[in-house]
Amino acid sequence: MRLFSPLPPLCALVVSACLVCPALAGEKDELALTLKQLEHIQASLERARIQANQDNPARFYFDYSRASREVEIIRQGIARYLEPSRAQPSVPVNVAEPLRGDYRREQR
């Protein structure tokens, strides 16, 4: 008399493997969409920078160059994740300082 059949655990393993593949594809699709959105953000930042009057003697202004650099760092990180380089060692992004998220600057 056989109490254990290997078929149910094997079926469960196959089903779970099939469920993981679409999840990974969904993640990559979402990250690819994020890359496109980051491109739009870069374009919006550039348009806003052009329209902004940085010669204005206002005490505070938006630091477009820092925001643009940080968006680019995020974009590069996602792109590296989506297309990992297997043949060559990964070259880390040269980040002099961590992302700050603070884009308000004071005139001196």
UniProtKB/TrEMBL annotation:
Query: Where along the sequence do coiled-coil regions lie?
Result: 28-55
Is Signal set as a keyword in this record? yes
Q: Which Pfam families match?
A: Plasmid_RAQPRD (PF09686)
Q: Which InterPro entries match?
A: Uncharacterised_RAQPRD
Q: Where is the signal peptide?
A: 1-25
Query: Which PROSITE patterns does the entry link to?
Result: PROKAR_LIPOPROTEIN
Q: Does the keyword Coiled coil apply?
A: yes
Assigned keywords, A-Z: Coiled coil, Signal
Q: What is this protein called?
A: RAQPRD family integrative conjugative element protein
Taxonomically, what lineage is the organism?
Bacteria, Pseudomonadati, Pseudomonadota, Gammaproteobacteria, Enterobacterales
